[in-house]
Amino acid sequence: MRDPDNLLTILIMLGLLIFPALVTDSYFQHIMNVALIYAIGIYGFNIITGVTGQLNLAHAGFMGIGAYLSAFLAVRLGLNFWVAMPLSVAGTGLAGLLIGLPSLRTRGVYFALTTMGFGEIMFIVFDNLIPVTGGPMGFTGIPAPSPLGPITFTSKIGFYYLCLAFLFLAIYASYTLVVSRMGRAMLAVRENEDLARSVGVSIVGSKIWAFVLATAFIGLSGCLYAHYFRFISPVSFTVGESFRCLTMLVVGGMGTLAGPVVGSVLFTYLPEFLRDIEEYQLIVYGVVLMMCIAFLPEGLVGYLKMKAEERALRSRMEA
Amino acid sequence: MALLSCQSVSKKFGGLMAVNRVDLSIDEGELVGLIGPNGAGKTTMFNLITGFLPPSNGRISYQGRDIVRLPPHQLAAQGLVRTFQKINVFSELTVEDNVLIGAHLQFKTSYLKALTLYGRCRREREKFREKSGKHLQEVGLERWRHVRAKNLPLGLQRALGIAVALTAKPKLLLLDEPASGMTPDETRQIMDVIGRVHASGITVLMVEHDMQVVMNLCRRLIVLDFGQVVAEGSPEQIRHDPKVVEVYLGKGFKRDDS
């Protein structure tokens, strides 16, 4: 049985590879760069929320940690991007571990509330720790990623392919995760904690690993965000932003392979079409999210997957 | 030596003695039924044995070792596996994925290995797929392997719960009301399955309300009432035990045939 999710992912990957050749408009290229940066983080979101079933509302906060950490290392300590980036990814993962240890002992809605609280705390820290973050005025002068031999990342297209490489890594990591022992345990935790425990799955262990892996990817997304815009400020990392990212994940399809990239591309382009009604954008988001939860609870990719499964099943039963 | 033994195990919920100084022991190779009216403490007893609840008092040992403080997943690793009273499957996953998760403990490929040597990981999964096919056949779920568990009829979901437990390679399997809510046909099937599981060398302790099931399957029964063991013995002895008759039918009831 061919999984339409995998097939769709491969098609999307191929499409993204040739995207710059198809679209010459520099503005659309810019939007696509932003979409890819978000997509990498949404793959992290998907690991903790889609695969493991724990609703993390500190998403934007962790993105901020990755962004500020990398900016700080690159600007204040003068580190090369290729040193600052892995350090900021590891640092965000470590923050995930420290926050995960207490909050992952709670279940369901309590975990969501705990992480929402942590997300708010992170925003307040970014906003007030002026000597480190620059406060509401923002952090300026972040350098573009350093060249890798002859390859430079200062142009939009150069940066695009850098993001694409990391996106492919995130997709590959997500794909192999669910066939590995650890990923299966995470799925089991999402589906039924008691049953998972009774067949030997460590609940706390699985959740912690999921959170560390997730926050590492979210940190990577934040780091790329900082080095792309060259400027970051706390408003990019509010709890409201976390909800926007959640919308991307839900509409794309939680727990699917193609869902995160579909959702983030969709929701990065959508505001561009809604520019004329700027003040009402949030209303449109809200309506889209509600419609999706009411009519497409599996998300776009999840829906395709379900339909294909039904078709395969029907033909099998008839045979 | 007993495979499982409980000595003077108690569990208090607030002021309620759910389990009150229960002694029981199960030898390797037995098929024992734990019966009693609603609220007698049978499921609590299961939760205590499998580490889902800590006992307030008493000792529980398995394979000669004290297991009172061990969490369920570590007990599962030692072959102490249970099923649940309510239907318990990984409902969004396919039948096949359900049993693959049951085999979690035997799965070797770590995430790091999966990332670097994806091919090997895939081969291992194929191997387990074949193995799990056997367990699915055993409970009659072979043709449903690609169906999501939530779409199965209830009887088959219960059978799947047992298949998941079996793939976890139990030495001692605790079944919590495996036949409840089943049609007579499904009940017969599940009895066959339990019989075969027992014949394959797995020790079984089961809670069941359906007297026909326990009386036919088990060689030994333990009767709980208000958290205490009131009787123990062969199905024939239990059937005629005046205390059991009292528990189930009330005081003053006289059998016609006696």
Describe the structure.
The complex is a heterodimer of chains A (319) and B (258). Chain A is an all-alpha fold. Helix content of chain A is 75%, strand content 0%. Chain A has helices spanning 4-22, 26-51, 59-75, 81-103, 108-128, 130-133, 156-177, 181-191, 193-198, 203-229, 239-252, 259-273, 281-295, 299-318. In chain A, helix 2 (26-51) runs parallel beside helix 7 (156-177) and helix 4 runs antiparallel to helix 10. The longest helix of chain A is centred in the last third of the chain and has 27 residues, at 203-229. The radius of gyration of chain A is 19 Å and the shape is globular. The two termini of chain A are 15 Å apart. In chain B, a hairpin with a 2-residue loop joins strand 9 (220-225) and strand 10. The relative contact order of chain B is 0.17. Chain B is built from 10 helices and 10 strands. The longest helix of chain B is centred in the middle third of the chain and has 21 residues, at 118-138. The chains are: A mainly alpha (319), B alpha/beta (258). At the A-B interface, helix 7, helix 8, helix 9 and helix 14 of A face helix 2, helix 3, helix 4, helix 5 and helix 6 of B.
